[in-house]
Amino acid sequence: MKKYLIYLLLLIGGIFLGYLFFYSSSEEKQQHTQTEENQIWTCSMHPQVERQEPGDCPICGMELIPASSSENGLTKDQFRMTENAQALANIQTTIIGNSETTSSALQLSGKIEENEEANAIQSAYFDGRIENLAVNFKGEKINRGQLIATIYAPELVSAQQELLTAAKSKESQPKLYQAVRNKLKSWKLSENQINAIETSGKVKENFPIYSSVNGTVTEKMVEEGDYVKKGQPIVKVANLDNVWAVFDAYENQIETLKKGQQIAIKTNAYPNQNFEAEISFIDPVLNSSTRTVTVRAELANKNQLLKPGMFVMAQVETANQNSAEKETIIIPKSAVLWTGERSIVYIKTNAKQPVFELREVQLGGDLGENYEIVNGLEIGDEIVTNGTFTVDAAAQLQGKKSMMNQNSAEKIVLTPAKQQVIISFLQSYLTLKDAFVASNEEEIQSLSTKIIQQLNEEDFSAENEDFQQYFSTIQKSLQEIQQSNSIEEQRKFFIALSESTVKIASMLTNFPTNLYIQKCPMANNNQGARWISSEKKIKNPYFGKAMLTCGSVIDSIQ
Asked: Which of 263, 282, 313 is the last residue of a domain?
C-alpha cells in the first residue's frame, strides 16, 4: 500500500507541474502575440516609415527596428528628453525656493558723465588771432582768473586808439568818452585794464582772456595761430566736484523708479566702495529705438574718484507699493522665453526623469537679472534655468505645445509687401544653410550678422502674435549663432532657426522656386531636425561632410 501511495503522489505532482508549465507557456505566448500585434516597426534613418511587422525600409533598405512604445503616464503636453540629450545641451533646472519679499533690488547699468549744469565754455570776446594758448592739454585744472589765452584783435587795437583820442577831450565830450569805455567793457576788458591803457597812452596789440570758473579742461577747441570769431569757444571746462550717474531703464522698469529714490552705486574701479545718491531726474520721453528712459543721479565727487566715462552699476530698492511683506516668486531671466504678450517657462514635471512641460506665466517687475512672477508658478516648481531655448526646440520637434506650437494658433495672411520681405529672408537663409553644409564657421557668423541687420530694418509689430513669435525666435537664434564660438554650438541654434523658418515659409504664396522641407533623424541627439532647401538632393547642414546625404524630403512648398 505504501508503494502505491508513493506512485499516486508522484502522478499528482506531475500533473500539477505539467499544468503550471503549459498554462504559463500558453499565457506568455498569448502576451507575446499581443505585443507583436501592437508593435510598430520603423527605420532609424527614416522615422516617418511605420510598419506593423518587421522587414526592410522601403526608402533605404535598412532593417526596421521596433519603435519606442508610447510614453505611459505623460499628459498630451508633456514630453521626454533623453538623459544624453539633456547632458549635451547642458540643461539645468532650479527648484523655486521659499518665497521672498518684494524688496528685491533692481539692477541698472550706466556710466559717469559730466554735470552739464556745472559745465562752462570760455569763448573769445572779440575777433582775432590766438597768439598764445596757456592751456596745454585736456584734463588740465584751471582756476578762476587764470590766463587762458592771449589774442591779437585788430578791432580792439582800433578801439584802444579811439579811447586815447576820446580821453584827450573827455571834459568837453564826456558822453563820447564814456561810450568808448563801455565799448571796451563789452569786450570783457576790466576797469583796471582800460585805465592802464589810458594811463600808458600806448595801444596794446595782444589781450589776455582769463577763466571765469574753476574746473577741469575737457576739450581744447582751438590751437595757437587759429583765427577766432567773437563768441567762438576756446576751451570747455567742467567742474568735476559734482558729476552725474546716468542709467538706462527699460520700459517695464519705469513703474518701480521715483524721483528722490535712494540708490547705491558701485564701480569696477572701487568694488568695495558704495556711492550713495538719489534719483534726481527721470526722462519724460521714452527712447523709441532702445525702449529705455534715462535715469540720472547727482554724485558729490570732491576727491574726483569718479571719472566721466566710467561704467557704474546701480542697485535700487523696489519695495512693493501695495504691501511691504507681499510674497513673490522671483526667477532668473534665463528661464523665461518672451514672445510679445506671451511669456513661458518649462517645468520639469518628474524629479527623477527628464520630462518637461510648457507653462505660461505672467511677469511682474523687471529686477535686473530676474523677473517677478505674478501668476503661473508656485513654490516648489522645478523650472529650466539654462538651455530653455533647446528644450523649446525639442518640444517643437515632438509636436508638443511650445513657444511656436499653440493649439489655438490662427491662420496668418501676409501682405504682398511682407511676403516680399520673407522671400528676401528665405533667400538669405538658404545661403546660410549652404554655409552650414560647408561647415564654414566664419561665413556662418558673417551671414548671421547680415541677416540680423536685414531683419532689424523690418517692422512686424502689426502682424498677429503667432507671426511675431516665429519672427522673434528667428532673430534670437541668429544672435545665438552669431555669438557662438564653434560649429557645434552654431548648429544647435540652427535647429530652432530652421523650425521657425519652416513655419513662416509655409505662409508664402509666391516663392520664385519650389522649396523642400527636409529632415535628418539623427540630428539633435537623434531626435531629428528639419531644414529648408531649394533642391531635392540632400545636403545635410547638421553634419556636413561627415553625413552629407543623411536625411529625406518630408514635405514641399510649391
From this structure: 313
